[in-house]
Amino acid sequence: MTVSLEATFREEWPRAVGILTRVLGDLALAEDAVQDAFATALERWPRDGVPRSPGAWIVATARNGAIDRIRREKTFARKAELLARLEDIPADEDADVSAIPDERLALLFTCCHPALAVDARIALTLREVAGLQTPEIARAFLVTEPTLAQRLVRAKRRLRETGIPFRVPPDHLLPDRVPDVLRVLYLVFNEGYAASAGESLVRHDLCAEAIRLAKLVCVLMPDEPEAFGLLALLLLQDARRDARVGPDGELVLLADQDRRLWDGDSIDEGLRVLRRAEALRRPGPYQLQAAIAAGHAEGAPPGHIAATYAALEQLDPTPIVRLNRAVAVALAGDVEDGLALIDGIEGLDGYPYLPAARADFLRRLGRNEEAAESYREALALTDNAPERRFLERRLREVTG
Amino acid sequence: MKYALLVYSDQSDWDGISEEEAAERRAESMPRWITLFEEMGKADPDVGGKELVAASEAKVVRVVDGETVITDGPFAETKEQIGGLFLTTLPDLDEAIRIASLVPAAEYGSLEVRPIVER
């Protein structure tokens, strides 16, 4: 498949799956219809050229295929009703896609429904909303293709059997559901940004997908400041990707990064998006995290960054935020205070960055023996090769 | 979608309390029951529901090698037992969860939302 065809497929998949799910009332059936339409496209487009409106062509072809399939089906209850609803979908292959009802937001909320396991939400979102193929998702998450395919089949079965609705949630549920959606995107990004296993520290394809999805969410929910906050955060973090890994693939801490390697365009875009979020005047955890990342990008004083972390802890008092605040406080020069904050954190057992940060504080305070103990503790908790090399190097420094 | 809402609670909470105390507890939960029945009636006028006699009165029946074996219930050593159930038709899982959260036992026990297989 050529690159442009692949990009078109990814772009058009959620629109077509969305409208077909709305009409057929079942994601798995919709997927089959759209998959068939794509197979037809793959056969015809290289020969006849890409149609004027690829999205409308795919929807019309999927619609016609679904109608044929349902007509042949003998046992389909609701056959007449389904056919009538399918016939309401525009059949004009050249129509402007704006003529097709946009069901992508409903698709996104359905894929991120809290009744699904988190793994299933991530896999479904990448498959249905990002339009990635099953083998691509399996590769990105380092699981076998059958495992991932099975995860998707189970998730789709659960959607159908438990009655998870296909819709944008009503207003009273939105304050709970929007963070669920944003969290899935953030998890996708993080999986790419800090690959939890394997030799490569950053798997950029996943980061790029998360950013693409976040942009789509901003288009679909233009009044949701946290969507813009998340997009800004992802852009600002992604801008540092090249500086974050050294020549031998080892982790480079923010303070030691070569700022010339930061991606200026990505930073500018992130700052613009953050201003857009802040203009909506409803702060939230992603906006504050983006503000922190913006502070790093713009070289704000460390004390200012530590203060923004304190504000974030007010809104989102999780152990991870406390840990990051402790690191910011130490970076601002108050290493003793940072150490006290870190020792007050509960509920992060087994998280390697806590002993790693603690070890760093102790090293800077010259308490080498205690530092070595914490480095060893961190080493016992991570399998990521570059991170291990980094920790081993520091361990040698304090024991040498 | 059809759902069974299974009501679980620790029935030993009601053991050895006086009639007055039991009446008081029931009176306390009345406003919640009223809200529940109002909302349920709106969501599904045909909802059905039954309260079950205490699990300690249950008989457990098994056929082992062709022979019927009867033991006293409850058969599992779990603290919470099914005390009743609702059968209802609702538009989707979100609505089933909302209705389940209105059942008073959701506060002191738990509600299990089980979709019913339709063939």
Write structural notes for this entry:
Chain A has 400 residues and is mostly helical. Chain A has helices at residues 3-24, 27-48, 54-72, 79-87, 104-111, 118-129, 134-140, 145-162, 174-193, 204-220, 225-238, 264-279, 285-297, 302-315, 319-331, 335-343, 353-364, 368-379, 385-399. Chain A has three domains: 3-100; 103-214, no CATH class; 222-299. In chain A, helix 1 runs antiparallel to helix 2 (27-48) and helix 13 (285-297) packs antiparallel against helix 14. Chain A is elongated and about 75 Å long. Chain B has one domain (2-115): Dimeric alpha+beta barrel (Alpha-Beta Plaits, 2-Layer Sandwich). The N and C termini of chain B lie close together (12 Å). In chain B, a hairpin with a 2-residue loop joins strand 3 and strand 4 (67-72). The mean pLDDT of chain B is 91. Chain B contains three helices and six strands. Chains A and B meet through loops of A and helix 2 of B.
Question: What are its keywords?
Answer:
heterodimer; A: 400 residues; mainly alpha; 3 domains; 68% helix; B: 119 residues; alpha+beta; Alpha-Beta Plaits; four-stranded antiparallel β-sheet; two-stranded antiparallel ribbon; 3 helices; 6 strands
Quaternary structure classification: heterodimer
Strand content of chain A: under 5%
- What is the spatial order of strands in the main beta sheet of chain B? 2-5-1-6
What's the number of structural domains of chain B? 1
Tell me the fraction of residues in β-strands of chain B, as a range: 25-35%
**CATH topology call of chain B:** Alpha-Beta Plaits
Most extensive contact: A-B, 9 and 10 residues
